[in-house]
Amino acid sequence: MGMEKKKWQVTKVRHLMTRSGQMLGHCNSDMVFIDGAPFVVLEWGDYPDGESVPLVTVQLDPKQLDRLDWDEAEYMYQSPIEDPVRHN
Q1: pTM for this predicted structure
Q2: What angle do CA 83, 85, 88 make, to 5 degrees?
Q3: Cα torsion at 65, 86, 72, 69 (round to 10°)?
Q4: How far apart are CA 39 and CA 41, in angstroms?
Q5: How far apart are alpha carbons 21 and 7 in whole angstroms?
Q6: What would the pLDDT profile of 69-81 be if each residue is shown by its tens digit?
Q7: What pLDDT score was predicted for residue 88?
Q8: Residue 79, SS3?
Q9: Contact at 8 Å (CB) between 72 and 14?
Q10: Which tens digits make up the pLDDT trace of 7-57?
Q11: What pLDDT score was predicted for residue 16?
């Protein structure tokens, strides 16, 4: 996915996070919709003008996404998300 300049409509999603198959626990992350599909944003980047763009994303299955009535998150994702970021 290229870094396109656009205004991102960001919401919050609560999900389980795994890394290398090990459960890390629950996280609240940013979520955006790209061409109608939900993506969790695990890392943001900035253009020189200060505009933020999603750098590391994981596409979510909309069937696993439930609405919440929480202040901290608007959605709950039912399946764990594997962290795609390499950690040393």
Answers
A1: 0.82
A2: 115
A3: 10
A4: 6
A5: 34
A6: 898 999 999 999 9
A7: 52
A8: coil
A9: yes
A10: 788 999 999 999 988 999 999 999 999 999 999 999 999 878 878 889 999
A11: 95
Q: Given the structure tokens 């009535």, which residue do they identify?
A: 69
Partner residues linked to 34 by β-bridges = 37
Looking from the CA of 16 toward its CB, the CA atoms found within 13 Å total 9
Residue 77 CA from chain centroid, whole number: 10
Q: Which two tokens stand for residue 2?
A: 């290229």
Looking at residue 23, its amino acid is M
Structure tokens at 31: 């979520």
Q: Which pair of structure tokens corresponds to residue 87?
A: 């950690």
- 78 - beta bridge partners? none
What is the number of other CB atoms lying within 10 angstroms of the CB of residue 58? Answer: 18
Q: Residue 77 forms beta bridges with which residues?
A: 65
- The encoded tokens of residue 69 equal 């009535």
> Is residue 77 within 8 Å of 64, Cβ to Cβ?
yes
Amino acid identity for residue 52 in this structure: S
